[in-house]
Design goal:
alpha+beta; Na+/H+ antiporter like fold; 4-stranded antiparallel sheet; two-stranded antiparallel ribbon
Length: 386
């Protein structure tokens, strides 16, 4: 524990505590000032009369993503050719296995085993994919168009909305906190950096395609235009902003100033933006949580099982193909962790700030830090296996 305390930053170390405080703060705001989040979410960019991008949320989420992207040195990608096996295994797990096991595990738990606890007839109201002109009463996927607070929305089963959030988590491989996990596990930092860069680029293509496909399989709205817009706003924009500003800052101030001063300044900006977003999310979902306080537990169960399952599979495969511990540990940790910033951003854009999908992505944040620290500890205790 002492080593973790020295290696991990103050904000990251207590992220689960901050998330817990945000839950309490958000629920309190939702009860005391119920119009707070609605007013902010009403500040949006509309397309064809439908709210598509919440401006306050978009600002928060950009500042969540930019500090992550600016840390990435894409020149490291060229070194991937020297480590074909760990890179290939990481890509295989992240894009060919993980999204589909997440769908299967979440469907079985949320749609079958825990459905009665969630509420067999419980509904959630989510955005209608922009570009679609659906009439009230018309069916789309598993939903039906209704009027909610004067706005046309899709009423879908609540468990399916939670499933949507799990899908978005499963399709978003981690490119941020995994740098911390790999460092704590004493893994190959070069491999971790390479995979952060490669996964960021692959997400530009595969995130929308796989997420759209799995949402369709789950009889959920498939807002292809919104998925493309989400990737553009929440991945491509901060990625390119980070890439070009990194080059300019290093050229202007030098690499030492960039790494020691600039990056250090940005870390709390990322966490603060994340926490502010969570306050807004829970101010909207406070009533759901208060009426069913076990909601977070039901969502956490499949997320916990998925994380451990993917870690075990990847770790064992890494051993089987003869990877060193320094490559095996970060490979397994990359597979196990999620890019919850992108998942939250996409869920808010596609389904709305008050949706169950957005809540499910937030639960991903809540359980990831303590769980990943536990897996880091497991890696270090089993280093002799390799």
């Amino acid at each position: 524990m002492t080593e973790q305390t020295n290696d991990i930053g103050f904000f990251e170390r207590y992220l689960s505590v901050w998330v817990g405080l945000c839950i309490v703060t958000g629920i309190t705001l939702g009860v005391v000032v119920p119009e707070f989040a609605k007013t902010l979410d009403g500040m949006s960019l509309d397309i064809n009369g439908a709210p598509v991008v919440s401006i306050p949320i978009a600002i928060c989420l950009f500042f969540m993503m930019y500090p992550i992207m600016v840390k990435i040195d894409f020149s490291e990608v060229v070194k991937a050719g020297k480590s074909i096996k760990p890179v290939s295994l990481t890509l295989f797990i992240n894009w060919a296995i993980k999204p589909f096991t997440m769908y299967a595990i979440a469907y079985v738990f949320l749609g079958i085993w825990l459905r009665e606890f969630i509420g067999i007839d419980a509904l959630d109201w989510v955005k209608i994919p922009f570009g679609l002109d659906l009439a009230v009463g018309e069916h789309y996927g598993s939903g039906i168009v209704v009027i909610n607070d004067g706005i046309k929305m899709l009423a879908i089963p609540l468990w399916r909305s939670y499933l949507a959030g799990c899908i978005l988590l499963g399709v978003a491989p981690c490119t941020a906190m995994v740098l911390v996990w790999g460092y704590l596990a004493k893994g190959n930092a070069g491999h971790t950096l390479v995979m952060v860069a490669i996964n960021s680029l692959v997400m530009l293509v595969l995130f929308g395609l796989i997420a759209g496909y799995l949402l369709g399989v789950g009889q959920l709205p498939v807002p292809w235009q919104a998925l493309l817009l989400s990737i553009s706003v929440y991945v491509a924009l901060p990625l390119f902003a980070g890439f070009f500003s990194r080059k300019l800052i290093i050229k202007w101030k030098g690499i030492a100033w960039f790494e020691q001063i600039f990056v250090g300044f940005l870390t709390p900006v990322t966490i603060f933006s994340l926490l502010l977003t969570l306050v807004l999310l829970f101010s909207f979902k406070g009533e759901v949580v208060l009426n069913n306080p076990l909601t977070i537990l039901w969502i956490a169960i499949p997320l916990f099982i998925q994380t451990v399952f993917i870690f075990v599979v990847t770790y064992l495969l890494a051993k089987k193909i003869g990877l060193s511990y320094e490559d095996a540990a970060p490979t397994a940790l990359i597979g196990a962790s999620n890019h919850f910033e992108v998942a939250i951003a996409t869920a808010v854009m596609l389904f709305g700030l008050s949706s169950g999908a957005a809540l499910a992505t937030v639960v991903g944040v809540l359980i990831e830090v303590p769980l990943m620290l536990g897996l880091v500890g497991f890696c270090k205790k089993t280093k002799s296996w390799f």
